[in-house]
Design a protein that fits this description.
Length: 236
C-alpha cells in the first residue's frame, strides 16, 4: 500500500510538472512576432561605387519591443579591386556613413564569404544594439554597400528581419501570461502551496508586482483565492 501511494504521489508530481512546463512554453511564445521587408535590386546592374538605400519596416506595431534584427544581403562580387579585398555593408540613422566606425558596420564581404565571381551568396548581418535603436526610432534604416578598393559587385536582395515581443501591462491573476485568468493560473497558484516552483522564476516583464495581490512577494493562497473569485464571477 505504501509503495502504491508513493507511485501515485510521483505520478501526481510529474503531472504537475508537465502542466507547468506546458504553461511555461506557451508563455514564452506569447506576444512574440517576426516581421520582414525585402528590398529588390536589378541583379544585372553592377556597382563600382558606394550604393546607399533606405529600408523601411512599417509593420512593427506600437508598443512592441524589438529584441533582434538582421539584414540578409544577397550579392555577387565580380571583382575585388585593389588590396585589401573587402566590401562593407554599413548602417546609419541618417545620410552619414562612417566606414571605419564599428557603430556603423553591419558585416563585411570577403573572398571567404563570396568565393566565386559568378555566383550570388547570402550573408546574414545581425544588427547591433545601437543599430536596433536607429530602426525603432522611425521604422527605417539607412543602408549602404561601400567599396574602398574599386571593386565591382551586384546586388539581388536585402531582407530586413525583425523579431519583437509585445510589452503589454500585466493582468492581475494571469500567472502564465496568456492574457487570460483561467484554470491554468489557478493550477500554478495551488502548486506553489505544495512547494512547486511557480511563475516568479520566469516572468521578467514586471508582472509579479501585479500578481502579488497581498504584497508578500510570492504566489500563494491569496493569489489562488483571487483567481478563484475571478473565475466564479464574484470579483468585480
Amino acid at each position: 500500500m505504501a509503495c502504491r501511494k508513493k507511485i501515485l504521489a510521483n505520478v501526481a508530481s510529474l503531472a504537475r510538472a508537465m502542466v507547468f512546463l506546458t504553461i511555461l512554453l506557451s508563455w514564452k511564445m506569447a506576444g512574440a512576432a517576426v516581421y520582414s521587408a525585402t528590398e529588390t535590386f536589378n541583379p544585372d546592374q553592377g556597382f563600382s561605387y558606394n550604393y546607399p538605400w533606405v529600408q523601411a519596416m512599417p509593420e512593427i506595431p506600437s508598443g512592441a519591443e524589438v529584441i533582434a534584427a538582421s539584414v540578409d544581403l544577397r550579392a555577387l562580387v565580380w571583382h575585388w579591386g585593389t588590396y585589401p579585398a573587402r566590401i562593407d555593408l554599413l548602417c546609419s540613422d541618417g545620410i552619414e556613413f562612417l566606414i571605419n566606425d564599428p557603430d556603423y558596420q553591419l558585416c563585411r564581404l570577403t573572398p571567404q564569404t563570396h568565393p566565386s565571381s559568378s555566383r550570388f551568396y547570402t550573408i546574414a548581418c545581425p544588427l547591433k544594439p545601437n543599430q536596433i535603436d536607429w530602426l525603432t526610432d522611425d521604422g527605417r534604416l539607412n543602408l549602404m554597400v561601400a567599396t574602398s578598393s574599386m571593386g565591382t559587385y551586384y546586388l539581388e536582395t536585402a531582407v530586413l528581419t525583425v523579431e519583437t515581443t509585445e510589452t503589454t501591462p500585466p493582468i492581475p491573476g494571469d500567472i502564465d501570461g496568456d492574457r487570460d485568468v483561467d484554470l491554468a493560473d489557478l493550477i500554478i497558484a495551488l502548486g506553489s502551496l505544495s512547494g512547486m516552483q511557480t511563475a516568479g522564476q520566469f516572468r521578467s516583464d514586471g508582472a509579479m508586482a501585479a500578481l502579488d495581490v497581498d504584497g508578500d512577494d510570492r504566489t500563494g493562497s491569496a493569489e489562488a483565492v483571487y483567481i478563484m473569485e475571478t473565475l466564479s464571477g464574484s470579483r468585480p
